Every structure is written in structure tokens, then in C-alpha cells.
Amino acid sequence: MPARARGRPGRAAMAGLAALLMLAAPAWAPAAPRAYEVDADASSLRVLVLRRGALSLLAHDHVLVAKGIAGRIVFNPDDPAQSAGQISIPVAFLEADDPKERAREGLSGQLNESNRASVRENMLGAEQLDAAAYPRVTAAVEGVAGKLPELRLQVRVHIREREQVLTVPVTLTESSEMLTVQGEVTLLQSDFGIAPYVALFGAIAVQDGVRVKFELIARLARP
User: Fold this and answer.
1) Does residue 199 contact residue 205 with C-beta atoms inside 8 Å?
2) Which helix or strand (DSSP H or E) is residue 142 part of?
3) pTM of the entire structure?
């Protein structure tokens, strides 16, 4: 029987080395993207419409609250840039100037039921959101940058017949079965073909820019 060549490990030694390497290797694999459904009851989205004009003290700032938000988020924790999401808001479900929401936003004064109904009718009318012709506002994430939990989203917003891509900074946190996305962005009504409300030749008006503040709560989608 020929002698084993010097300096060349035997099969048993090689097998033992392979076993040690396997034991030493980290038991890690990339996490699969997880799908979440937006919880409409737990989520919130508020739109602040602020006054301007020489007689602005005679008017009010306003807050609209979105109800019935629907949406889906696919989140990749190992590579957030590979995440995506979209939401849809039924325009007819917007509520105007709820007293609790006004207090929450620190808005002065209260509106009675008649005033609130008038504000809502005007904002949903043909000159503003035109809910009859355009029943939904949608937003879709087209890009994600940054490092968790602070991210920057490129979001395509569709209101009426127009679209704009906005950069939206958000804070995103994930638990085992829940995703929370919080953020705020300012958009211009005129970018979406909406003429800001004006009365008395501009003495009472609202600002073109409106602030959108949101907290989306999404639950892990069930197969």
C-alpha cells in the first residue's frame, strides 16, 4: 500500500474541518419581505388648511380628517429600498373641523354644525376636491432611501386628474406583526389643479400649501 503523501490532509481531517466551519458559520439568512394591510380604524391622516388675508382674523383655520384609509405595504427590513406601498383615501369620508381634532391641533375657535357642514361642502365641491368626479385620493411609494427608522420616501400622489411626486420623510418601526409609519408633508393645492379658497377679493383666503400629518398602522397580512 503506497504511503500517504506528506502535507496533504486525509479525508477524515477534511470532513472534521468542514464540520467545524459549519458550526462556526452564523445561522443567518436574509429576511423575506413582509406584507401588511393598513388598519383603517387605528390609522390617522389629518390635513391642516390655514387662513391668510387682511381679514383672516374673521375666518378660521381648518382640519380635515380622513376616514376609511385602505392600503398595503410590502416591507423588506434587510433592504428597505426594496419596499413598496400604496394607500387610497375615499374623499367623501373626509370630516371637517371635529372639535376634538381642532383641539388636538391647537386651532383656535370652534365651528357649529352648520359651519362645519358648509366647510365640508365647499372642500368636497367641484372647485376644490370635486368628490363626485374624483372619489379617491391615492398615494404610491416609488422609492425608499435612508436608514431605519428614519426613511425618505418618493411618493406619487394622485389628486383629481393630476399627479405629483413628493419626497416624504417618515419614521418607520416594525414589530412582529405591526408596522407604524409616521410623517408629515406639505403639498400645494395649485399643483393638483385646485384653486385655494378666496373671498372678499382676497381679504379672506386660505394658503396654497396644506400640511398633511399621518400615522399609518398596518397589520401583518394573513395568507
Assistant:
1) yes
2) strand 136-147
3) 0.80
